[in-house]
Design brief:
mainly beta; Rieske Iron-sulfur Protein
Length: 128
């Protein structure tokens, strides 16, 4: 049986928007709300170039990555064709007006994933 962590109220998530949940380890989790008051949670990282999905445009059960407009299905975290790849999803439970995430997943799910570094490659220099 799962242990659940209360994150916020449904109304704390903007309609067609998101809210980020910080974790002790790993990237943030993006919690989304669509216009039907459905709530979804994904790692805040596009599978393409690591864009912050929490800053994307929510429509239906999808979010568009703000970097390259990839469409990510919020129910399963996978990019829609012709794009490929998935971002980890997190279990969500809504009871009344409260939103909960699975505590075990928050603590350990996809904590090894990082955001790509932007900018020119750095070369290591030899110490004098």
């Amino acid at each position: 049986m799962s242990e659940w962590t209360k994150i916020c109220r449904v109304d704390d998530i903007p309609v067609l928007g998101s809210r980020r949940v910080k974790r002790e380890q790993g990237l943030d989790v993006a919690v989304f709300r669509n216009d039907q008051d459905q709530v979804f949670a994904l790692l805040d990282r596009c599978p393409h170039k690591g864009g912050p999905l929490s800053q994307g445009i929510v429509f239906g059960t999808s979010v568009a990555c703000p970097l390259h407009n990839w469409t990510i299905d919020m129910a399963d975290g996978c990019a829609r064709a012709p794009d490929e790849g998935c971002t980890p999803r997190f279990s969500v439970k809504v009871e009344g007006d409260a939103v909960f995430l699975d505590a075990t997943e928050l603590a350990g799910h996809a904590t090894d994933q990082t955001r790509p570094l932007a900018g020119p490659a750095r070369r290591e220099t030899a110490s004098p």
